[in-house]
Structure formats: C-alpha cells, structure tokens
Amino acid sequence: MAFSGARNERGEVRIHESLDELSTDLAYHIAELSEASVKERGVFAIALSGGSLVGLMGKLCEAPYNKTVDWAKWYIFWADERVVAKNHADSNYKLAKDGLLSKVPIVPSHVHSINDSVSAEQAADDYEFGIRQLVKTRVVSVSEISDCPKFDLILLGMGPDGHVASLFPTHSVLNERDGWVTFITDSPKPPPERITFTLPVINSASNVVVVVTGESKAEAVHLAIDDVGPDGLSLPARMVQPTKGKLVWFLDKPAASKLDRSQFSE
Ligand code: 6PG
C-alpha cells in the first residue's frame, strides 16, 4: 500500500499503488469482516453496489478465499439497483451474479435481489418489506440508535459527481429520513429508474467501504474526504458518515491525486 491514514470522522483512507494491489487488499478486508461477523452473529449481511466494484472484488473467488470464506453464511443485498430485468446488461444483480455470486457457493435463497417485474416505487417498497422481515429474524441486525437495519458491510462505489449508491447530488432523496429504501426515476446516470438505500440506512451499517478508482474522481474524492469546509457538505459521498460503524476508503493513486496527503504516513 502506498499510503494509509486515519481522517477522523472521514474514516480510514487506503491508497493503493495499483488496481491489483487494491483488489488484493479489498478481498482481504471483506474476508476479515465476514469472519468477524460470522463469529459474532452467525451470518454476514453484505450489500453490494454496481459499477467497477464487483470486478474489484474478483479475488474473493480465488484461493484462498473461495475455500476459506464461510459463503453459506452470506446474505446478499444491493445498496442500489437499476430497475431493469435481472438478465438485462444494466442489472447490478446480473453484474454480481456473473462476476461473483455464480463463482462461489452462496445459498441461492440468501440472495436478495429486487422484484424486477414492478414499478420502481413498488420495487423499493417490496425491497424494504423484505429487509424488514429479515430484521425481525435478525438475519440483518438492527441499529441501537435508529430503527434502521444495521448491515454488517455496505460496499459503495462513487461517481465523478460524488454520487454513491443511487444518491445523486442535489436530489431530494438525499433528504429521505424515514424510509430504508427509496426510488428515483430521473437518474442522471442511465438507466433512469433505480432503487437505493437511504442515507440513514447507509450510516447505520457496522462497516461501510467506498471503493474509488481513476483520475476522473480525484476532485470528488478531495471534496468527500479533505477538510474543505462548506464546499463538500452537499456531496453525497461526504454524507456517508456511519454513526457508530467503521468507514474505509479504498483508493488508487489517480483517484487520490488531489487529496491533502499531509496527514498520511507512508
Ligand atoms: C450504479 C452504482 C453506482 C456506482 C458508481 C461508481 O448502480 O450505477 O451502484 O453508484 O457504484 O457510479 O461506478 P464506477 O465504479 O463504475 O465508476
């Protein structure tokens, strides 16, 4: 690792020399969190996102993790999903199935994908209802300070505009405080219809990991992590502030190129 350091409430920042190094560290980190959660709760409730994230998780399908991770205890969710058919090229479920879920022995009934045959609004309602059932049975834990689900790990990517999950800058869903899962029909990044975890759910997780690579995201990374005053406050990625959980940023060098590195130790 090139640099790593703690940034107070902005979490831990890990800057990697290469995508290969980043994906090695990411697989290690996820496997460690899985082990700890299975030891403590008997299950691991993990929420994925779309984009480049799933590809960067690829080392989990290889030795030693394909054998050492307790896959039967994993319960899979999505922090956001595009409202398209599950076999559509835009589906985050399809992306994860092709790149990860079909390569490791995850129990099919533990994979909680969206209802793809209804409207975005209905899909969000159905998804929240499903999570509520799993909170009752404690497959998903519950936050001690809000009534939100407490996922063991929520994995996020970030766009060049600073969006995370399907929470885009200036969108009214950033203000959603009551619901767990909401929907949009006007995503600036196609496809337009999506469902997404709300900020209270993301910020109730035990662990949140944000994976960001590439120079096009350097300015958003700077605004999301550095002490930039009011400039960064409205950036969705900066609103990721787990109340009790741990936040870790996995960056490559181009994505980290505008960070104030004075607080890092090599
Ligand atoms: C989606 C994603 C989205 C993604 C970011 C980063 O469904 O579009 O969940 O939030 O994670 O746009 O994507 P990249 O890593 O591919 O840039």
Low-confidence stretches: none
Enumerate the distinct ligands. 6-phosphogluconic acid
Give the N-terminus to C-terminus distance in angstroms: 8 Å
Morphology: globular
Oligomer: single chain
Overall structural class, as computed from helix and strand content, comes to alpha/beta
Strand line-up of the largest beta sheet: 1-2-12-11-8-3-4
Biggest sheet overview:
7 strands, mixed
Q: How much helix, percentage-wise, in residues?
A: 25-40%
Portion in beta strands: 15-25%
Radius of gyration, in angstroms, nearest whole number: 17 Å
Element-by-element helix/strand order? EEHEHHEEHHEEEEEHEHE
Total DSSP E strands: 12
Number of helices: 7
Supply database-style keywords:
266 residues; alpha/beta; 7-stranded mixed β-sheet; globular; binds 6-phosphogluconic acid
